[in-house]
Write a structure and sequence with these properties.
The chain contains 21 helices and no strands. The protein is an all-alpha fold and 397 residues long.
Length: 397
């Protein structure tokens, strides 16, 4: 008999050995602890040395303008507080009221606090989105899996740029995700999405989802929350509120050129293709995508798959919004979680391809990234693929 040598452990056995080492081996747990502490130290150094994000500066100036009684949409907004920034305030006035606490501290301190809050929101989204990978495993394994997911997510352009810009998208995504997934059927359901919509209009598509799925209590709570928030803004900032809703609410020109590659929406795609009557094409495509997305989200909701329902509504929202900058796509984290933790080959393959295109690993393979070269419509294609191929039922490990 020939000696075949030691048998190689199967993948399942290897995974069990890793889990057993994390559970029983003190040196392994100690090494993991030291590694975590090193990552935390590096994160602290990075936070303290962050440059001011352009979007965070806009939020800070919005709160500063409220504190000093200056016009929120004034022509000198870009130079408020002696900080030159080309971006103007494009949010409803209620958002500026929420940004007042930021203006109570120096912008550098606000940037640190804002980044910590964004990282916490990202960690919450990753923890829930990839839960089949860590559920039921020992504590050290959970820490290892979540750190690995977060480390990879930092390489995605929406996450890295969102953190550098000081984007509010992390918090808004978590509000909507938690409302649909966690608060379903509970008394405060709808409040978080109402708050997100009062800050930024695009989450309003979730109100339509509530109507389609007959979640009347959540819809009522969301509408009442929006009305209360905007009512407070009207009392506190009447001139700014009237100006916004009469003249600025639908004005996308204040956000910059909509045909920039970083705008990954159907509106931008239609205009980049140079189609005649682009607004009509956009409205037609948006109607089709909205109907398809809400229908698939309804089917997921009816099956009790609220995570899938939330992601499907979000994909439609990113597509039909007039402006969907790539750093708005924080929804890719829960989307990737659903795709990569699915047992079926189709969703998992889509998840692997999407991750390769979204992360710098694509450069090693010579692949164009999302929004680059021939993939100038990459995010739009990804959103459409997810809208069509993300299963409405679960097949997680």
């Amino acid at each position: 008999m020939h000696d075949r040598g030691p048998l190689r452990p199967r993948a399942d056995d290897l995974g069990e050995q890793i889990e057993r080492s994390l559970r029983e081996s003190r040196p392994v747990r100690l090494a993991l602890l030291v590694g975590c502490l090193g990552l935390l130290a590096q994160a602290a150094v990075t936070l303290l040395s962050l440059p001011l994000g352009d979007d965070l500066v806009v939020y800070w100036k919005g709160g500063w303008a409220v504190l000093h009684g200056l016009p929120l949409f004034g022509e000198h907004f870009t130079a408020y507080a002696g900080i030159d920034n080309a971006l103007v305030f494009t949010y409803p006035p209620f958002a500026a009221l929420l940004f007042v606490p930021l203006a109570l501290v120096p912008p550098e301190a606000a940037m640190v606090a804002w980044t910590v809050a964004s990282l916490a929101a990202l960690a919450a989204l990753a923890a829930d989105g990839f839960r089949p990978w860590w559920r039921g495993r020992p504590g050290p394994a959970v820490v290892f899996v979540l750190l690995a997911v977060l480390a990879v997510s930092f390489t995605f352009q929406p996450v890295s740029n969102g953190l550098l810009l000081g984007q509010i998208g992390f918090m808004l995504t978590l509000l909507c995700y938690a409302d649909v997934v966690v608060l379903h059927g509970r008394r405060p359901a709808g409040v978080a999405i109402g708050l997100a919509t009062a800050i930024k209009l695009t989450p309003g598509l979730f109100l339509v989802h509530f109507a389609v799925t007959r979640q009347w209590r959540a819809l009522r709570n969301a509408v009442l929350t929006i009305a209360a928030c905007w009512g407070v803004a009207f009392v506190a900032l009447p001139a700014a509120t009237v100006t916004y809703f009469r003249h600025l609410m639908l004005d996308t020109t204040r956000m910059g050129s909509v045909v920039q590659p970083i705008n990954q929406s159907l509106n931008a795609t239609v205009q980049r293709f140079g189609l005649p009557q682009p607004r009509l094409w956009w409205l037609l495509l948006a109607a089709v995508v909205t109907a398809a997305g809400l229908d698939r989200a309804r089917r997921a909701h009816d099956l009790g798959e609220r995570r899938r329902a939330a992601v499907l509504v979000a994909m439609a929202m990113l597509l039909v919004s007039p402006v969907s900058w790539t750093h708005h796509a924080i929804w890719l984290i829960p989307l990737f979680g659903l795709l990569l933790t699915d047992r079926r080959p189709g969703p998992r393959l889509l998840g692997v391809v999407a991750v390769l295109l979204a992360a710098p690993t694509r450069q090693l393979l010579g692949l164009p990234g999302l929004g680059d070269g021939i993939m100038v419509e990459g995010y739009v294609l990804l959103y459409l693929a997810a809208l069509v191929w993300l299963p409405v039922d679960s097949a997680a490990r």
